[in-house]
């Protein structure tokens, strides 16, 4: 595959009268960006491949074609309309991986609503912060997951909610914007709708789809909040669709409707994560592929079971997910290890030599590649090519994405030479709209020229590849030297007896 990047080299005159090259790069592309919405892309898939299997939720024993999911989406849209949700309203979803999550993502996108993804592990304080910051009008959840009992957690936020009869609207002084709570359950709980009663509200009704612009916000992802309470990053249709499309293009996964090639995606990651939203939700729509949910939360045995029995061709995850899954895989008898895996991508950390070697030994016909990004960039800004060498994959986070601008700057905001660490700045279609209801943090992150300051210590090379050094806020100054935990971790992981360091 031919790699293109435009390099605009800036020069300043140094003290020794030599010209020093400073870098800026932009990922060139032979294809224009796609001005589509998530609802539009899904509708196209339904029209072109209605009977193709789209979603398989193994732990729920449910299988859906594109047409079947579309029917579920229609029902949910009618009910959203029946409770008075309007274009731009926020709908919270607080649950682990399950088929209904897909229905909610597509239905909210189709109506011009904004889906607010809430970590299913959140407790009452985090839940209250999320619902308040995003001004959630409707919350969809389940009764129980692992040790979490969601009605009890919600009661800690506002006990007044449960004083109302079942299947009635919410009235809350603590959460004034919240008007409806829906439990994906058959049980009737005070102050909330059960799923069937909620769906019945939309029975024999219709809904109108307002005109939705591609650059409208459609999905709120909460950041990790390592330096305070989580921020609500608002992502848009345009960024999510194009990022998913160009990630897949670089992997060689296309819409093969007319060629008979069907890719099967394995999703071990949580759907509330931006990585999963892009790769496990939007990308299968774009490529008209099938996606498999092995379990409600990550389970290495369930992941391996899907890989081997459903013959998945593609998987994505973090190094930890791969290491745990490979440990489960090697425990299988040889006759149960047959698989069709061809492509795997890892994000969240550099692909270590130990991870690469172990992966190649277990899946010799598959290719393991790296991607790099963050929630605020929808999420991927750098990615390996399918034909990159193992050495390149282990030593970099990939090549700059198509249509994406990047530069690395010092603490004064001046660009540094190629190969010199500094803060990575990103600009382009993939950039978030901003932090919802937080103009101050948005201005701190996105400057007046449209550059998004990632907070990542990064190195850009003249060939278009880059490498992540660490988070700026994690930097350790020792004897005048800047050290990053990631550098220490990478050094320790180079030892053959060390699998992973954190």
From TrEMBL:
Coiled coil: none
Keyword Ligase belongs to the record: yes
GO biological process: fatty acid metabolic process
Matching SUPFAM superfamilies: Acetyl-CoA synthetase-like
Domain AMP-dependent synthetase/ligase: start-end pairs: 43-436
InterPro entries, alphabetized: AMP-bd_C_sf, AMP-binding_CS, AMP-dep_synth/lig_dom, ANL_N_sf
The UniProt record lists the keyword DNA repair: no
Catalytic activity: a medium-chain fatty acid + ATP + CoA = a medium-chain fatty acyl-CoA + AMP + diphosphate; octanoate + ATP + CoA = octanoyl-CoA + AMP + diphosphate
E.C. designation(s): 6.2.1.2
Molecular function terms from GO: medium-chain fatty acid-CoA ligase activity
UniProt keyword annotations, A-Z: Ligase
Similarity comment: family membership: Belongs to the ATP-dependent AMP-binding enzyme family.
Function: Acyl-CoA synthases catalyze the initial reaction in fatty acid metabolism, by forming a thioester with CoA. Has some preference toward medium-chain substrates. Plays a role in adipocyte differentiation.
The name this protein goes by in its record: Medium-chain acyl-CoA ligase ACSF2, mitochondrial
């Amino acid at each position: 595959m031919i790699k293109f990047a435009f390099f605009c080299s800036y020069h300043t005159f140094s003290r020794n009268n030599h010209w020093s090259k400073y870098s800026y790069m932009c990922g060139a592309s032979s294809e224009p960006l796609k001005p589509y919405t998530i609802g539009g892309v899904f509708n196209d898939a339904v029209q072109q491949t209605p009977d193709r299997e789209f979603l398989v939720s193994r732990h729920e024993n449910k299988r859906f074609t594109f047409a079947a999911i579309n029917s579920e989406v229609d029902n949910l849209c009618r009910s959203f309309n029946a409770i008075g949700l309007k274009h731009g309203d926020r709908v919270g979803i607080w649950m682990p991986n399950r088929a209904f999550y897909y229905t909610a993502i597509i239905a909210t996108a189709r109506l011009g609503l904004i889906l607010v993804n809430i970590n299913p592990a959140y407790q009452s304080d985090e839940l209250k912060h999320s619902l308040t910051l995003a001004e959630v009008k409707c919350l969809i959840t389940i009764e129980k997951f692992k040790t979490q009992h969601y009605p009890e957690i919600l009661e800690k936020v506002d006990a007044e909610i449960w004083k109302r009869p079942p299947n009635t609207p919410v009235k809350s002084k603590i959460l004034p914007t919240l008007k409806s709570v829906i439990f994906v359950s058959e049980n009737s709980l005070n102050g909330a709708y059960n799923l069937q009663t909620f769906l019945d509200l939309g029975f024999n009704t219709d809904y109108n789809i307002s005109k939705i612009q591609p650059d409208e916000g459609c999905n709120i992802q909460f950041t990790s909040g390592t330096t305070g309470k989580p921020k609500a990053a608002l992502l848009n249709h345009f960024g999510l669709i194009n990022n998913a499309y160009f990630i897949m293009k670089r992997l060689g996964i296309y819409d093969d409707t007319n060629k008979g090639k069907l890719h099967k995606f394995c999703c071990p990651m949580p759907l509330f994560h931006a990585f999963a939203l892009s790769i496990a939700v939007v990308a299968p729509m774009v490529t008209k592929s099938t996606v498999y949910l092995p379990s409600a939360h990550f389970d290495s045995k369930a992941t391996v079971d899907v890989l081997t029995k459903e013959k998945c061709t593609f998987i994505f995850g973090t190094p930890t997910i791969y290491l745990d899954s490979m440990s489960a895989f090697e425990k299988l008898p040889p006759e149960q290890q047959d698989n069709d895996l061809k492509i795997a991508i890892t994000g969240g950390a550099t692909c270590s030599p130990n991870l690469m070697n172990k992966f190649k030994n277990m899946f010799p016909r598959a290719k393991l590649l790296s991607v790099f990004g963050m929630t605020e960039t929808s999420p991927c800004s750098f990615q390996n090519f399918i034909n990159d060498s193992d050495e390149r994959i282990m030593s970099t986070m990939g090549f700059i994405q198509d249509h994406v601008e990047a530069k690395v700057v010092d603490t004064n905001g001046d660009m540094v030479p190629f190969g010199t660490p500094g803060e990575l700045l990103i600009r382009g279609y993939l950039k978030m709209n901003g932090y919802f209801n937080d103009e101050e943090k948005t201005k701190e992150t996105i400057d007046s020229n449209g550059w998004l300051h990632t907070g990542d210590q990064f190195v850009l090379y003249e060939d278009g590849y880059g490498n992540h050094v660490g988070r700026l806020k994690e930097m350790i100054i020792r004897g005048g030297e800047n050290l990053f935990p990631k550098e220490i971790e990478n050094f320790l992981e180079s030892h053959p007896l060390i699998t992973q360091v954190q």
